[in-house]
Every structure is written in C-alpha cells, then in structure tokens.
C-alpha cells in the first residue's frame, strides 16, 4: 500500500466538517494566504501516525496538486489519482481502505477544466473509435470515459467541458454504490462529493 498523507484534528470527524475545511483551504489558496508551507518539520511531526479527515481523488494532471489547491498540510488528506479519476479495482480498494482503516469522513472527487484524458476521448470518439476497439491508453480511456462524453453530447461545441462535469458526477455515483462505502454513507459517517477545479482561477467548484 502506498504511503498516504494524514493526521486529523480531532474536531474534523464528520463529512460536513471535512468539506468545510477543504472549502476554507481552497479560499486561502486562491486569495494567496496559504497556511501551510510543506516544510520538513511538518512532515516529521506526522511521521508516526495518520488520521486524515478526507480522501481526495483526482486526475494525474501535474497542474492540479491536490494538497496545494486545498491548502492542506502533511497528515490532513489522503490522495488517490488516475487519468480523469477513472476507477479500477485498486483505486476502489484504496478508497475503501481510507474509509475503513484511516476513518476519513469525506471522499472528494475532483475533476478539472481542460482535462487531457477527457479531451482525448472526445477526439477519439469523433474520429470513429469504438468502445473496446482500440488498444493502449486511448482504448482504455474511450472505454471508461465514453459514457460521460455521450451523455454530455459528442456534437456539442463544449463537449469536453460538459463531459468533465458529467464524469465527476458518474464517479461520485459509482463510489456511492461501492460495498462498504454505501453502508458508511447510509449511516452518515462518510459522504462522497464531486468538484471541478478551474486551472485559470484556482477556484474549486463543489457540485451538489
């Protein structure tokens, strides 16, 4: 299991409190007043335990450093990433681990504008690629992201940006139905929320 960031303030133990902390952190980031500088002393202070309040699941895009855009220090959030936050068994297992073993209160799915993976899928479908018909990373992306692109409307001028939002909603819905997570959500101990990051402004829009 890869190392995850984490150590949670005792008061951040509910989905609402965790979400409020991430919203506040994004505001600090956008307004140029981050609280955390990510120095080695902070890393050492959390080296012996981890109790994150949230797991943030985002894209691999290098322009979207999740700890930075939410202004979170060592030990506050666990992070999982894949192209266009596409789910597979290992990611579902990792998210379930964070909920069951690290006691996170919130799972936040973060898409972002101008996502290259979604753009590649739109272009592949417009070029006539068929689901399951290609090989390599494009084939996998087409398989996984085609439903979101088609729901958004392949012929729409802003198909990519619409599909990005649809894909976030689909990922949230899939996670809400994962065994283990579903029971925690029903009990009110965990919530799964979606969001979209604006590369230009730094703001995170939370989807409700």
TrEMBL record:
<dbReference type="InterPro" id="IPR036874">
    <property type="entry name" value="Carbonic_anhydrase_sf"/>
</dbReference>
<dbReference type="Pfam" id="PF00484">
    <property type="entry name" value="Pro_CA"/>
</dbReference>
<comment type="function">
    <text>Catalyzes the reversible hydration of carbon dioxide to form bicarbonate.</text>
</comment>
<dbReference type="InterPro" id="IPR001765">
    <property type="entry name" value="Carbonic_anhydrase"/>
</dbReference>
<protein>
    <submittedName>
        <fullName>Carbonic anhydrase</fullName>
    </submittedName>
</protein>
<comment type="similarity">
    <text>Belongs to the beta-class carbonic anhydrase family.</text>
</comment>
């Amino acid at each position: 299991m890869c190392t995850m960031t984490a150590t949670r303030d005792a008061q951040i133990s509910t989905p609402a409190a965790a979400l409020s902390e991430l919203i506040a952190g994004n505001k600090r980031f956008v307004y140029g007043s981050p609280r955390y500088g990510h120095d080695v002393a902070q890393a050492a202070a959390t080296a012996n335990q981890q109790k994150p309040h949230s797991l943030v699941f985002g894209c691999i895009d290098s322009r979207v450093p999740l700890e930075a855009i939410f202004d979170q220090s060592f030990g506050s959030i666990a992070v999982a990433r894949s192209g266009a936050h596409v789910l597979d068994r290992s990611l579902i297992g990792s998210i379930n681990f964070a909920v069951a073993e690290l006691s996170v209160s919130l799972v936040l799915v973060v898409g972002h504008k101008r996502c290259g993976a979604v753009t590649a899928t739109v272009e592949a479908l417009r070029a006539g690629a068929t689901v399951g018909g290609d090989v390599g990373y494009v084939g996998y992306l087409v398989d996984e992201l085609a439903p979101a692109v088609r729901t958004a409307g392949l012929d729409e001028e802003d198909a990519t940006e619409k599909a990005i939002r649809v894909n976030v909603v689909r990922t949230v819905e899939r996670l809400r139905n994962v065994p283990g997570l579903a029971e925690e959500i029903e009990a009110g101990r965990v919530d799964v929320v979606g969001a979209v990051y604006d590369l230009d402004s730094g703001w995170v829009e939370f989807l409700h």
